[in-house]
């Protein structure tokens, strides 16, 4: 068959034929089983060698079989290619009889065209075309529809960069010109023009190599459509999008165009990392600190870390951009492994917002309300001046808890350890973990008391209700994943906000990311303490990042902005750092704590999650697993313990945690450990290398 590494093939597997990729060619010598011949080579483009190497690396890193990572890389090929189109083409035979209409057809038909298009362009009836077909002057041909990706023009309309932007862009340009693997941290305050700078980095990569491809990763692309528009403006062509909202046929086209090098810029969510780039020269990870880059289900990986790994394999440059870089990235920059480029001021006349803590113990909201008097006053003054406010509460729905006043019963999910969240728009109680939902009952399901169910605590829907009551003349809108379901809805809402058609935007973190609202001058954080509960190792870091980002939406144009942060813990290090604008001090203190306890980035972590419908089997296997843990220097294994989420969809869950010194090969340790046990069929075992969720 003349196969090469990377070729896609149809391979017999038991009774089925499956898609496979050639990873190695051997002559079969020394194989002690008869090998079945392949069913054939597929017409799809082969996987480029570096994509294959990345896939193999990714599987080994995540402690998964290579096929799992390969499946991610081939995800774009789930649907068949679009059917070829029937077109007509000249055969070379002269027509028996010439007419003016027929002459026009012969002149227009220089290439294969759809019959209807040919007729229209030659200004003849389709009967004329059909006559020529019958006569054998034209013939029908099947043509694969070409993939049209307009090439980006790096010379088109660039912004005039301010001096610090220009310095950062020049530094990145230098790295790209030098070639090979390098990483730059673009560390710039919110509104400093990081996007402008990385657009120039993209242009530099495109200019230096006519075949260069660029990948830009965004944490939640459906919510940040504005970035796509900026690409289109800068390069005169829309980049290819890659995320779950893109249709399957469209994805196949993007996949093929990336593999063949026709598509030069991809803007995508984390899974775009697995696309088969022919010539990847630059990867940009925007908002690199964002937790959404961690894929938690199925094949578990962190897209920022994997982007760096992919670039190393491809010999490409990486730009990590953020106003609140992760501790891991700062640590790499401090050690000199990453070039550290700073933008310390907002562009133009815009200034960073003034930060104000509101101590809820001293200034509590009125009974039944969630906004303190100081925040209410500021929103009112903003309204009077025609300015916009954003009220931030990172909780979907109306109320996070519903309980019975008569018997105290808390409404919880039937098969999962979680309270049901009340959603008023839909009139349902929803489990945010599994999506389970039920109609809100009229009577308590426990004690049957009528009308006794009370909503406890606020969600965005309830906050919207409060805003409407307090400011009946204001135009109020809600931005959460329940009200903004797709890219189009997000684009419309963001556009309305940007054009000043909304006075008060009540939002979850969906609105905290990357948006530019010129008229927004006030950000009110309703419950700053929300993310600090629970013993997550990154709780403080994440809270700092989220609040700094959401505060950073205020005052991005000429009018000064302000963020008011409601908290019961104004003395907490996170709140103090936010108020003082002391990010670096905060990160240094966090880093010291991590170093003392040997936690990332100073040590390595992997979680082992066991789950089963059968509690006794789970218990027994967890004990067997811990006693089988190899003893190794620099490695500690903790657990098994009931997971904080001890029951999900009827499955009991237990966790173990491996902590290792940096020099330890964690994957080899886990491999050796796994080889010592046999996981029973009733138990599922998942390994999460570099865990971000500890639930
Ligand atoms: P960041 O990504 O750092 O939050 P942006 O790139 O979105 O910042 O820039 C913030 C705002 O300032 C945007 O509206 C952007 O168009 C504008 N801006 C930034 N730099 C420039 C520049 N050099 N020239 C013109 N406008 C700029």
Polypeptide structure, described:
By secondary structure, the chain is α/β, with parallel strands linked by helices. It has five domains: 8-77, no CATH class; 85-143; 163-343, 3-Layer(aba) Sandwich (Rossmann fold); 354-395 and 458-591, 3-Layer(aba) Sandwich (Rossmann fold), CATH 3.40.50.300; 603-689, Ribosomal protein S10 (Alpha-Beta Plaits, 2-Layer Sandwich). The protein is built from 19 helices and 29 strands. It has a seven-stranded parallel β-sheet, sandwiched between helices. The protein has a six-stranded parallel β-sheet with strand order 15-25-24-16-23-22, with helices on both faces. A four-stranded antiparallel β-sheet has the order 27-28-26-29, with helices on one face. Helix 1 (49-61) crosses helix 2, helix 4 crosses helix 5 and helix 6 runs parallel beside helix 7 (194-208). The two termini are 50 Å apart. Bound molecules: adenosine-5'-diphosphate. Adenosine-5'-diphosphate is lined by residues 159-162, 165, 188, 190-196, 347, 516.
What is the general shape? globular
Q: What would you call the quaternary organization?
A: single chain
Secondary-structure content class:
alpha/beta
Tally of distinct domains: 5
CATH superfamily label of the largest domain:
P-loop containing nucleotide triphosphate hydrolases
Mean pLDDT: 92
Can you give the helix content as a percent range? 25-40%
Q: What is the gyration radius calculated from CA atoms?
A: 29 Å
**CATH architecture field of the largest domain:** 3-Layer(aba) Sandwich
- Tally of extended strands? 29
Q: How far is it from the N-terminal to the C-terminal residue, by CA?
A: 50 Å
CATH class of the largest domain: Alpha Beta
The description of the largest β-sheet is:
7 strands, parallel
Tally of helical runs: 19
Beta-strand content: 15-25%
Unreliable residue stretches: none
Task: Provide the spatial order of strands within the biggest beta sheet.
Answer: 8-9-7-10-13-6-14
Bound chemical compounds: adenosine-5'-diphosphate
């Amino acid at each position: 068959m003349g196969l090469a590494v990377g070729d896609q093939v149809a391979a017999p597997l038991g009774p089925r034929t499956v898609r496979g990729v050639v990873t190695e060619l051997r002559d079969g010598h020394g194989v002690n089983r008869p090998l079945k011949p392949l069913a054939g080579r597929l017409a799809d483009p082969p996987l480029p060698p570096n994509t294959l190497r990345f896939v193999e690396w990714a599987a080994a890193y995540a402690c998964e079989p290579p096929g799992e990572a390969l499946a991610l890389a081939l995800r774009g090929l789930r649907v068949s290619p679009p059917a070829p189109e029937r077109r007509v083409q000249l055969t070379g035979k002269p027509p028996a009889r010439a007419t003016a209409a027929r002459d026009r057809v012969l002149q227009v038909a220089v290439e294969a065209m759809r019959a209807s298009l040919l007729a229209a362009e030659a200004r003849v009836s389709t009967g004329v075309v059909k006559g020529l077909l019958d006569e054998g002057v034209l013939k029908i041909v099947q043509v694969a529809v070409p993939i049209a990706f307009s090439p980006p023009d790096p010379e088109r309309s660039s912004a005039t960069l301010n001096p610090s932007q220009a310095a950062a862009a020049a530094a990145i340009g230098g790295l790209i010109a030098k070639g090979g693997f390098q990483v730059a941290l673009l560390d710039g305050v919110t509104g400093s023009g990081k996007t402008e700078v990385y657009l120039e980095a993209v242009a530099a990569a495109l200019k230096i190599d006519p075949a260069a491809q660029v990948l830009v990763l965004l944490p939640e692309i459906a919510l940040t459509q504005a970035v796509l528009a900026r690409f289109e403006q800068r390069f005169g062509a829309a980049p290819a999008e890659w995320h779950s909202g893109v249709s399957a046929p469209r994805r196949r086209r993007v996949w093929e165009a990336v593999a063949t090098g026709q598509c030069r810029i991809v803007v995508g969510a984390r899974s775009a990392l697995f696309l088969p780039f022919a010539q990847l020269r630059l990867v940009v990870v925007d908002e690199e600190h964002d937790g959404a880059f961690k894929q938690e289900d199925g094949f578990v990986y962190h897209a920022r870390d994997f982007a760096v790994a992919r670039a190393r394999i491809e010999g490409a440059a990486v730009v990590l951009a953020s106003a609140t870089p992760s501790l891991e990235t700062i640590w790499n920059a401090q050690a000199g492994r990453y070039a550290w480029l700073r933008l310390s001021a907002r562009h133009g006349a815009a200034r960073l917002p003034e930060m104000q803590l509101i101590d809820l113990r001293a200034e509590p909201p009125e009974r039944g309300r969630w906004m303190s008097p100081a925040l209410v006053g500021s929103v009112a003054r903003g309204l009077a001046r025609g300015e916009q406010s954003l009220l931030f509460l990172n909780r979907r729905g109306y109320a996070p808890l519903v309980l019975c006043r008569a018997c105290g019963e808390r409404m919880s999910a039937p098969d999962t350890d979680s309270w049901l969240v009340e959603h008023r728009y839909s009139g349902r109680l929803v489990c945010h973990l599994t999506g389970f939902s039920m109609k809100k009952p009229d009577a308590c399901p426990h004690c049957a008391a009528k009308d006794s169910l009370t909503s406890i605590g606020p969600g965005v829907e309830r906050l919207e209700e409060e805003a409407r009551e307090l400011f009946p003349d204001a135009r109020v809108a809600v931005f959460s994943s329940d009200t903004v379901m797709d890219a189009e809805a997000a684009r419309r809402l963001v556009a309305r906000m940007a054009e000043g058609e909304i006075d008060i935007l009540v939002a979850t973190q969906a609105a905290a990311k990357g948006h530019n609202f010129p008229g927004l001058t006030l950000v009110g954080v309703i419950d700053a303490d929300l993310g600090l509960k629970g013993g997550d190792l990154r709780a403080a870091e994440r809270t700092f990042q989220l609040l700094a980002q959401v505060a950073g939406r205020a005052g991005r144009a000429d009018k000064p902005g302000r963020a008011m942060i409601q908290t019961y813990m104004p003395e907490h290090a996170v709140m103090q750092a936010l108020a003082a604008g002391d990010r670096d001090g905060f990160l240094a203190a966090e880093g010291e704590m991590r170093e003392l306890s040997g936690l990332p980035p100073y040590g390595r972590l992997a979680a082992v999650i066991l789950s089963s419908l059968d509690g006794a089997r789970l218990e027994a296997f967890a004990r067997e697993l811990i006693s089988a843990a190899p003893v190794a220097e620099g490695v500690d294994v903790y657990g098994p313990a009931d997971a904080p989420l001890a029951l999900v969809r009827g499955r009991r869950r237990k966790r173990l945690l491996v902590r290792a010194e940096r020099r330890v090969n964690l994957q080899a340790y886990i491999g050796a450990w796994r080889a010592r046990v046999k996981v029973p069929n009733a138990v599922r075992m998942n390994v999460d290398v570099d865990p971000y969720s500890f639930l």
